[in-house]
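Sanity check

After download, print the first record. It should look like this:
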Amino acid sequence: MGTVAAMPSSAPASPDTALGWRAPLDEAWRSMGAPGSPGRVSRLDRGWSTVLRSATDAQPLRVRNIGADVAVGDWVVVSADGERVEHVIDRTSAFVRRASFEGARFEAHTIAANIDVVFLVHACGSPPNQRRLERELVLAFDSGADPVVLLTKADVVDDPGPVRDELVAAAPGVPVLVVSGLTGQGLDEVRSYSTGGDTLAFLGASGVGKSTLVNTLVGAEVQATTEVRDSDQRGRHTTVASQLVRLPPGGWLVDTPGVRALSLWLSGRGIERAFADVFDLMDDCRFRDCKHDREPGCAVVAAIAAGHLDPARFASLERLVAEEAALEDEQREWVRRGDRRGHRRPRGT
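Expected structure tokens:
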């Protein structure tokens, strides 16, 4: 096991900017007293972190995450003995959902940290899922990263236009790119997002073609791929752990396993940004406390009647708002009970 070399306090080690280090991270690190020499988490495995100390690190450290809330993409300081994560530097962004595993319902699960662009991956060969995309966009906007929709497997359909149009309708103002990992269609546009050394994250359901896309972008088989089913053009999901990989000629990519459940965590302005078109309509309602049901002068009802707003989109917004409100109530009750019994507060609050 390697060790982190001690640095003079007057001249702390400068982290590798080619690894994705940015000015806000530097400020956060120095506010901590510039401890150690920060490295970046490239993989997590059952309580262990793989930590890169430079963009060309051929022998990354493998250290324990004892007591540390760590995600792929995090910048961390390893203990002097090289055995564990000692500090996690404040994140500039994080894609967070509500934990889905048993016993952690009131905890946040960070899928990727310190990302600049999050690609929400959907496939041409499957029916477009607007409601899932809307949910993904709420989480993406709350992450602090810029969302981009990727429509993969353009090679399996004659015309991806109709599917793209449905996703555009669910993601107003968000770029929607049509790509193929097999033919290379649209990949130069994807690469353009990492020309400044930025970190990209790919998120999507199982079988949407992320692994093929990652392998093509990286130029090597980073993830194994499997045959697709003729019935729905979906492959079996093959990515088993999130990992940070380098993109040529620069930049980084966080590839994640297929995400089946995407429960909201506490939203900042994610819902408002993902449904900005609907909130703009609400601003035009005659009454400020309009319920958008039968009130006179309701701009939302008028837009639905005129065919300008899909009622399913408005219903999706209402469900997400209700889900977030229910989560807030549950967390308040959890904290109240925990304070009374001396239990810990849920992580992420």
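If your output differs, re-run the checksum step. Summary of this record's structure: The radius of gyration is 22 Å.
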